[in-house]
Amino acid sequence: MPIHMITMPKWGLSMEQGQVNGWLKAIGDKVAKGDEVLDVETDKIASGVECTFDGTLRRQIAQEGDTLPIGALLGVVADEATSDAEIDAAVEAFQRDFVAAAADTADAGPQPEKAQIAGRTVRYLKMGDGGTPVALIHGFGGDLNNWLFNHAELAAHRAVWALDLPGHGESGKAVETGSVDELADSVIAFLDDRGIERAHLVGHSMGGAVSMTVAAKAPERVVSLALIAAAGLGEEINREYIEGFVAGSTRNALKPHLLKLFADESLVTRQLIEDIVKYKRLEGVKEALQKIAASSFEGGVQQRVYRDRLETLAPRTLVIWGARDQIIPAKQAQGLPGSVHVIEGKGHMVQMEAASEVNRLLNEFFG
């Protein structure tokens, strides 16, 4: 069996280094492809580093508290028959040849851009080329960084676009009614502006309702719908979360609500909270979110439900949910047409918590 190196991953465009929070597997443990072997925290989020091969964990090179650059050696996986001397030689060769990327090249690759579309500033990020395009549509209070662990993987075989909806991220904050129709119209305008005639739509949370609304308005534009913990498939939603997120503007006010997004609360890093606080304090954000919440979630109830006509909206549908979702209950996945997957032990941000599994499901679905 070859000697496999576990290295510091690159999550998102701005990541330059990560801090090791601890090992989840001990030396001598059997590991399989997809197993999380250690926790790493970046300036954006904490997540588990997944093994991409089968074998036995033979070395833990990085230790808890170590901060290491992208690509640095974390650990070694090999079979039990591989000698210690062979592993030591492989580690020595890796460390001798490894050169950390310079800070000015760490962000190499596609960068977010902005365009004036239908009278609004729209921030977007495109990765990949060819194939049938994919559009990633985030949820309430989110932005294109919600696809941090998915975008590049999905773009390996096709063009994949992520955008900030009106009122969100670095797109324009002004909204008229804040209705799901207004948000869907902004997505259609984006597709028009980018010359995208037909696309797979992937919507998370409120982005799911937006995606379904796009399909209802312009079915000829939608090749398929992939709905992740989607709004628009039932009436129930966590009213306390919506109201708390809209009203909160400080770290202490927002943190209790942000913790509900993940089954593993340790993934809510201080930096993630600070980024949300900065966003919430931007001019026009509170007004935009109030309008959107009032239109889509008035009285703590989802106002637009497509459940009974989901199978008529697109030729194919995929539904993915985290079983421990505290924002929109996973029971809303029951009885839906198409391919339905509920992932155990994961929460509302399932595309982050179970990125490898979600990416696999999406890539298989796209074909």
Describe the structure.
The protein has helices at residues 84-97, 151-154, 180-194, 206-217, 239-247, 251-258, 270-280, 285-296, 310-313, 350-353, 355-366; strands at residues 4-7, 17-23, 30-31, 36-41, 46-50, 55-60, 67-69, 73-78, 113-117, 120-127, 134-137, 160-163, 199-204, 222-228, 317-322, 339-343. The strands form 3 sheets. It has an 8-stranded mixed β-sheet, sandwiched between helices. Strands 1-8-6-3 form a 4-stranded antiparallel β-sheet, covered by helices on one side. Strands 5-4-2-7 form a 4-stranded antiparallel β-sheet, with no helix packed on it. The model has no long low-confidence stretch (mean pLDDT 92). Helix content is 29%, strand content 23%. It has 367 residues and is α/β, with parallel strands linked by helices. The protein folds into 2 domains: 4-97, RNA polymerase II/Efflux pump adaptor protein, barrel-sandwich hybrid domain (OB fold (Dihydrolipoamide Acetyltransferase, E2P), Beta Barrel); 113-366, 3-Layer(aba) Sandwich (Rossmann fold), CATH 3.40.50.1820. Helix 6 packs across helix 7. This is Acetoin dehydrogenase dihydrolipoyllysine-residue acetyltransferase subunit. Keywords: Lipoyl, Transferase. Its cofactor is (R)-lipoate. InterPro entries: 2-oxoA_DH_lipoyl-BS, AB_hydrolase_1, AB_hydrolase_fold, Biotin_lipoyl, Carboxylesterase_BioH, Single_hybrid_motif. One of its GO terms (molecular function) is transferase activity.
